[in-house]
């Protein structure tokens, strides 16, 4: 008759309170050989709580130093909720508070985990063999919570002479099915069995398991084999921590392996791009996926020829052209390409160039947010990427080669693949790991697979690209103006922008030729004479200025700021307040000249309140620092 598998487990009584420096082997041997106990035999497994090991090793600290002790034991924060921290400690264990515990220890003290639990287990096993002549396994355990499960259980943190893992891969089950991933955590099962008889408050820190001699093995590996490595850990971070980590995980990769890219991973990244913020509830992104080598080569060859023609027209030497063309190797060597495109579907129509340009810039910014989401999602799929702007310089060529609609504007190309090596550390201030909590999380938008009516997308024979459109926004009127890249928008009447060129926006609109920048001193000097000055409203509250028809805003006196900027640019002496004028001179007298420049005046049509204002009532005294331009009203 076949014997039914079974084992026996009991707690070991008679162990006194352990203090720093106690001989733990002697205490265990005495308790195991006491009258009325079964003793110890070859093949037994001793399950020892880590607390008595920590006490014997003197791993006791004052409770006031608990947070400092947690910091010292922490390698990385996995999750944080209020004051609770789930961290990875220096032993590689993911535990609450790094395993620093205030239970079963005298009041006012906390316990750290043993310095090296595996070494402690080996010392106990060797000491018991010498003292009692028995070959036993030793496990050192601690209590911890588990993901997805409520409640606590004991797990093994140190082991000696015990097969901590039972690898069944390569075998079959009772039905003949192959076992491909089954690895049993035997040591943790023994730890949990021992905890059933030890308890948490009974003063029984050691249990003995008998009847499983096959788990005792002299050559068994230690408990570190139970710690899952980072490369195979699918749940390495908490939810919010994973979001922040994903932002820093995205790195520009310029060298890729030849491993194929999973098209499904790219499509999931496209779905993530659709959650980026966008104007007017649109999705102004289209992603062209180049999944065949033929389609990638055809596009890159056409772009190269166009780039070479442009450089030759610029008068570049052939050596210089060759160097610049080689920069495109990052795209040519990638096993997968995606071309993000901007579309203006759903944009608003404006009759003037200024607002039309602002509308387009808004869509450009949204496209950048969508591409950022795309890159971050690729990093989450363990795919490297490099966003290269080259398609923006030859949009007509890209549209022709890929047969794209005229209204699709390519916004660079993204090389995608497995990174050939670890990325370099980020340079500059704050290089390396991102500080926890330093990265904001973009506002989520509702997402449903219905947003992607054309996903998954196949690639037809011949290497034609596939298109990922996202949801269909409302159509854009054909009569809507588009920025031609020439004339600058007209500024609002009554205001002059802070820019060296009067009447031009602070930045050139999308597609316009950028102006030659001026030196800082010249820019400040030019700006000082044309500072923007708001028109004060007599009905506004003191300390405020406001535009006609607009809500008041607490703006500084820009004329004073401009004067100070002019002073700093020219190194002039501190300016004096304007000299007093007699009533006979009137309020339209000019201010005296100072240095090489005239004092700034408000633009035509601006009304000022102050010593030169033509308003009822006595004149206000000149503000400190001088100035006859518009000043905000101030409480007296």
UniProtKB/TrEMBL annotation:
Residues that coordinate or bind a divalent metal cation 1: 101, 142
Residues binding a divalent metal cation 2, per UniProt: 143
Region (Dehydro-coenzyme F420-0 reductase): 239-636
Annotated coenzyme F420-(gamma-Glu)n binding sites: 310
Biased composition (Low complexity): 469-492, 564-576, 584-623
Region described as Coenzyme F420:L-glutamate ligase: 1-238
Region (Disordered): 422-636
Lineage: superkingdom: Bacteria
Annotated SUPFAM superfamilies: CofE-like, FMN-dependent nitroreductase-like
UniProt-annotated binding residues for GTP: 15-18, 50, 55, 104
Ranges of residues in domain Coenzyme F420:L-glutamate ligase-like: 15-211
Keywords: GTP-binding, Ligase, Magnesium, Manganese, Metal-binding, Multifunctional enzyme, Nucleotide-binding, Oxidoreductase, Potassium
InterPro entries: F420-0_g-glutamyl_ligase, F420-0_gamma-glut_ligase-dom, F420_FbiB_C, FbiB, Nitroreductase, Nitroreductase-like
Domain Nitroreductase per the UniProt entry, residue ranges: 250-418
Swiss-Prot/TrEMBL catalytic activity: oxidized coenzyme F420-0 + GTP + L-glutamate = oxidized coenzyme F420-1 + GDP + phosphate + H(+); oxidized coenzyme F420-0 + FMN + H(+) = dehydro coenzyme F420-0 + FMNH2; oxidized coenzyme F420-1 + GTP + L-glutamate = oxidized coenzyme F420-2 + GDP + phosphate + H(+)
Required cofactor names: K(+); Mg(2+); Mn(2+)
Cofactor note: Monovalent cation. The ion could be potassium. Binds 2 divalent metal cations per subunit. The ions could be magnesium and/or manganese.
Binding site for FMN: 278, 389, 426
One Pfam short name: Nitroreductase
Keyword Glycoprotein belongs to the record: no
Family of the protein in this entry: In the N-terminal section; belongs to the CofE family.
Protein name listed in UniProt: Bifunctional F420 biosynthesis protein FbiB
Gene that produces this protein: fbiB
